Amino acid sequence: MTTAAPRGFGVPWPELNDGIFYKDVVPSSDHETTLIQFYSSKYGNSAPVQGWLQRIQNGQIKIDGRVVTDPNESVSAGLEVVYHRLPWKEPDAPYFLGILYEDDNMIALNKPSGLQVLPGGLFQQRTVLSQLQWQDSKQSTLLSSQEPQPVPVHRLGRGTSGILLCAKTKIAKSRLSIYFADGTSLVGGKRNTTKEPSSVRKISKIYRALVNGLVDEDEVIITEPIGVIKYPGVAKGLYVASPSGKPALSKVKVLERNVQGNCSLVQVEIQSGRPHQIRIHLSFIGHPLLGKHSPFVYYFHRYVFVSAIYVVLYIFRRILDMFIEDRTVMDCELFVEKK
């Protein structure tokens, strides 16, 4: 008996990406400065003067669409200058995306661990967004080309696997974005944290994670705020548990305890969406995620044993019922609940 192939899509990654184009418009304060002065002063943290000289001489800079190789050429206020970072081979990443649910407004994908959702850092092409764009270009027609391309409406960390919702229409993107933000606003408003998620939110996010140590209590509610602190080598700062941070709420339920392995399998429902919330909150209670990482420096571990197992939808029946039949909502709820 043969097993049906999983429904989904994915294109193997090219050896090299397309590089990145960085655009600037010369401000009046830099009028009549030289090209090398403009880049070395504005982006000195990207490369030293010698590095920018080499880039200019390699023909990687354009002024108003014209390639310029003379570092001493003057730039005038209002001109567009573009630096082309040359293509490079991105780190390995999976590319196949399973389709869990799809209709005319949205698509629910099974994102694998190791695949980044949006471009950032070394991953500019090997992302969920790229695969969505490539798939849409294959299926596009003259009529459907007027619709925006499917886009993720929330994020899952690169090391996290699970359900990723993507909007296929403008109204779906708008509504889903509002619903994802709704939980964070409820936490900020200090609503009753004992309520069931369906009574206060239209979308609930529930994860499973493997953590260090044996969690004593069967259920833990963590309300520690999350904020940013300055940290050497991290330009935008480091997200940590901080009394001066923004409100955050995580509900932790122990599913299994492995005494021999000194670890616990937990289910985490987050009612806010702060960056690195699960990692930070679990470390805050003394049970960091299993993996090769420091419990303090949350940015630098590559793989995290976290899986988004539920994204429960209570949305389209009232808001989008003119676009979706009632049975679709029921199918979606039942489908997600089974996973």
From TrEMBL:
PROSITE patterns: PSI_RLU (PS01129), S4 (PS50889)
Pfam families hit by this protein: PseudoU_synth_2 (PF00849)
InterPro entries xref list: PsdUridine_synth_cat_dom_sf, PsdUridine_synth_RluA-like_CS, PsdUridine_synth_RsuA/RluA, RluA_PseudoU_synthase, S4_RNA-bd
Gene Ontology BP annotations: pseudouridine synthesis
GO molecular function: pseudouridine synthase activity; RNA binding
Source organism superkingdom: Eukaryota
Residues in RNA-binding S4 domain copies: 34-94
Keyword Plastid in record: no
Similarity remark: Belongs to the pseudouridine synthase RluA family.
Origin species: Eucalyptus grandis (Flooded gum)
Listed SUPFAM superfamilies: Pseudouridine synthase (SSF55120)
Transmembrane segments: 296-316
UniProt name for this protein: RNA-binding S4 domain-containing protein
Catalytic activity annotation: a uridine in RNA = a pseudouridine in RNA
